[in-house]
Protein backbone atom coordinates (compact mmCIF):
# COMPACT_ATOMS: atom_id res chain seq x y z
CA UNK A 1 0.00 0.00 0.00
CA UNK A 2 1.43 3.32 -1.08
CA UNK A 3 -0.37 6.65 -0.73
CA UNK A 4 0.99 9.99 -1.92
CA UNK A 5 -0.32 13.19 -0.40
CA UNK A 6 0.73 16.58 0.96
CA UNK A 7 0.63 18.24 4.34
CA UNK A 8 1.02 21.81 5.52
CA UNK A 9 3.50 22.13 8.36
CA UNK A 10 3.51 24.71 11.18
CA UNK A 11 5.65 27.00 8.98
CA UNK A 12 2.84 26.95 6.37
CA UNK A 13 4.98 24.99 3.91
CA UNK A 14 3.22 22.39 1.75
CA UNK A 15 5.27 19.19 1.80
CA UNK A 16 5.01 15.97 -0.18
CA UNK A 17 4.25 12.87 1.91
CA UNK A 18 4.55 9.25 0.79
CA UNK A 19 3.02 6.58 3.04
CA UNK A 20 4.07 2.91 2.85
CA UNK A 21 3.27 -0.29 4.72
CA UNK A 22 6.69 -1.86 4.63
CA UNK A 23 9.82 -2.15 6.76
CA UNK A 24 10.80 1.42 7.75
CA UNK A 25 14.45 0.38 7.92
CA UNK A 26 14.40 -0.60 4.23
CA UNK A 27 15.62 1.93 1.67
CA UNK A 28 16.55 4.55 4.27
CA UNK A 29 19.36 5.86 2.00
CA UNK A 30 19.35 9.64 2.53
CA UNK A 31 16.26 9.63 4.75
CA UNK A 32 16.30 10.29 8.49
CA UNK A 33 14.24 7.94 10.69
CA UNK A 34 13.21 10.62 13.15
CA UNK A 35 9.74 10.18 14.59
CA UNK A 36 6.90 7.93 15.69
CA UNK A 37 3.20 8.08 16.37
CA UNK A 38 1.28 5.33 18.15
CA UNK A 39 -2.39 4.52 17.70
CA UNK A 40 -2.93 3.25 21.25
CA UNK A 41 -5.99 1.43 22.50
CA UNK A 42 -7.00 1.03 26.10
CA UNK A 43 -9.91 -1.38 26.08
CA UNK A 44 -12.13 -0.04 23.26
CA UNK A 45 -10.92 3.55 23.42
CA UNK A 46 -8.28 5.31 21.33
CA UNK A 47 -5.77 7.39 23.29
CA UNK A 48 -5.06 10.89 21.93
CA UNK A 49 -3.01 13.76 23.35
CA UNK A 50 -3.28 17.55 23.25
CA UNK A 51 -0.50 20.15 23.35
CA UNK A 52 -1.53 23.66 24.44
CA UNK A 53 1.45 25.20 22.64
CA UNK A 54 0.67 23.47 19.32
CA UNK A 55 -3.09 23.74 19.83
CA UNK A 56 -3.99 20.36 18.34
CA UNK A 57 -4.83 16.74 19.14
CA UNK A 58 -2.75 13.85 17.83
CA UNK A 59 -1.86 10.26 18.67
CA UNK A 60 1.00 10.10 21.19
CA UNK A 61 4.36 10.40 19.51
CA UNK A 62 7.64 12.20 19.18
CA UNK A 63 11.26 11.89 18.21
CA UNK A 64 13.52 8.88 18.15
CA UNK A 65 16.51 9.45 20.42
CA UNK A 66 20.09 8.56 19.47
CA UNK A 67 20.69 4.82 19.78
CA UNK A 68 16.98 4.09 20.18
CA UNK A 69 14.91 1.85 17.89
CA UNK A 70 11.52 3.08 16.73
CA UNK A 71 9.92 0.37 18.89
CA UNK A 72 11.76 1.68 21.96
CA UNK A 73 10.73 5.23 21.06
CA UNK A 74 7.07 4.13 20.94
CA UNK A 75 7.29 2.65 24.46
CA UNK A 76 9.08 5.74 25.84
CA UNK A 77 6.90 8.36 24.15
CA UNK A 78 3.65 6.61 25.09
CA UNK A 79 4.79 6.42 28.73
CA UNK A 80 5.92 10.06 28.77
CA UNK A 81 2.89 11.51 27.02
CA UNK A 82 0.10 9.35 28.49
CA UNK A 83 1.49 7.63 31.60
CA UNK A 84 0.53 4.32 30.00
CA UNK A 85 2.46 1.09 29.50
CA UNK A 86 2.67 -0.51 26.05
CA UNK A 87 1.58 -4.14 26.39
CA UNK A 88 1.71 -4.92 22.67
CA UNK A 89 2.81 -3.05 19.56
CA UNK A 90 2.84 -3.72 15.83
CA UNK A 91 4.05 -1.58 12.97
CA UNK A 92 1.28 -0.17 10.76
CA UNK A 93 3.54 1.66 8.30
CA UNK A 94 5.63 4.75 7.83
CA UNK A 95 5.59 7.99 5.93
CA UNK A 96 8.38 9.94 4.26
CA UNK A 97 7.95 13.70 4.55
CA UNK A 98 9.85 15.65 1.91
CA UNK A 99 11.07 18.71 3.82
CA UNK A 100 13.10 21.45 2.06
CA UNK A 101 16.51 20.08 3.13
CA UNK A 102 15.84 16.46 4.07
CA UNK A 103 13.45 13.53 3.92
CA UNK A 104 12.11 12.67 7.37
CA UNK A 105 10.70 9.20 7.95
CA UNK A 106 8.13 8.62 10.69
CA UNK A 107 6.62 5.32 11.77
CA UNK A 108 3.01 4.63 12.69
CA UNK A 109 2.28 1.81 15.14
CA UNK A 110 -0.69 0.05 16.70
CA UNK A 111 -0.48 -0.45 20.48
CA UNK A 112 -2.45 -1.98 23.29
CA UNK A 113 -1.83 -0.03 26.50
CA UNK A 114 -2.80 0.14 30.15
CA UNK A 115 -2.56 3.08 32.55
CA UNK A 116 0.40 3.17 34.93
CA UNK A 117 -1.51 5.72 37.00
CA UNK A 118 -3.28 9.00 36.49
CA UNK A 119 -1.86 11.30 33.80
CA UNK A 120 -0.35 14.32 35.51
CA UNK A 121 2.12 15.88 33.09
CA UNK A 122 4.40 15.12 30.17
CA UNK A 123 8.03 15.46 31.40
CA UNK A 124 8.80 17.57 28.29
CA UNK A 125 5.79 19.78 28.98
CA UNK A 126 4.42 19.29 25.45
CA UNK A 127 1.32 17.24 26.20
CA UNK A 128 -1.11 19.00 28.50
CA UNK A 129 -4.05 16.57 28.41
CA UNK A 130 -5.08 13.17 27.15
CA UNK A 131 -8.44 11.77 26.11
CA UNK A 132 -9.74 8.26 25.55
CA UNK A 133 -12.17 8.49 22.64
CA UNK A 134 -14.33 6.25 20.52
CA UNK A 135 -12.18 5.59 17.41
CA UNK A 136 -15.09 6.55 15.14
CA UNK A 137 -14.87 10.08 16.59
CA UNK A 138 -11.23 10.65 15.56
CA UNK A 139 -12.09 13.28 12.92
CA UNK A 140 -13.67 15.45 15.61
CA UNK A 141 -10.10 15.85 16.91
CA UNK A 142 -7.85 15.67 13.84
CA UNK A 143 -8.01 14.65 10.20
CA UNK A 144 -4.88 13.35 8.50
CA UNK A 145 -6.69 12.79 5.20
CA UNK A 146 -6.42 9.62 3.13
CA UNK A 147 -3.21 8.54 4.88
CA UNK A 148 -4.79 9.03 8.31
CA UNK A 149 -7.88 7.09 7.23
CA UNK A 150 -5.71 4.19 6.09
CA UNK A 151 -3.67 4.21 9.32
CA UNK A 152 -6.82 4.25 11.47
CA UNK A 153 -8.40 1.42 9.46
CA UNK A 154 -5.22 -0.67 9.78
CA UNK A 155 -5.05 0.07 13.53
CA UNK A 156 -8.64 -1.15 13.93
CA UNK A 157 -7.86 -4.28 11.86
CA UNK A 158 -4.81 -5.03 14.01
CA UNK A 159 -6.85 -4.40 17.17
CA UNK A 160 -9.51 -6.84 15.97
CA UNK A 161 -6.86 -9.47 15.12
CA UNK A 162 -5.17 -8.95 18.48
CA UNK A 163 -8.45 -9.34 20.38
CA UNK A 164 -9.24 -12.47 18.40
CA UNK A 165 -5.84 -13.97 19.18
CA UNK A 166 -6.05 -13.07 22.88
CA UNK A 167 -9.40 -14.81 23.37
CA UNK A 168 -8.17 -18.21 22.16
Low-confidence stretches: none
Instruction: Note the run of SSEs as H and E.
Output: EEEEEEHEEEH
Termini Cα gap: 30 Å
Helix content: 10-25%
SSE layout and pairings?
Elements: E1 2-8, E2 14-20, E3 31-42, E4 45-51, E5 56-58, E6 61-63, H1 70-82, E7 84-98, E8 103-115, E9 129-133, H2 145-166
Can you walk through the features of this model?
- The mean pLDDT is 94.
- With 168 residues, the protein is an alpha+beta fold.
- The radius of gyration is 15 Å and the shape is globular.
- The protein starts with a strand and ends with a helix.
- The chain has helices at 70-82, 145-166, and strands at residues 2-8, 14-20, 31-42, 45-51, 56-58, 61-63, 84-98, 103-115, 129-133.
Question: What's a concise summary of this model?
Answer:
The protein is α+β, with helices and mostly antiparallel strands and 168 residues long. 21% of the residues lie in helices and 43% in strands. Strands 1, 2, 3, 4, 5, 6, 7, 8 and 9 form a nine-stranded mixed beta sheet that branches.
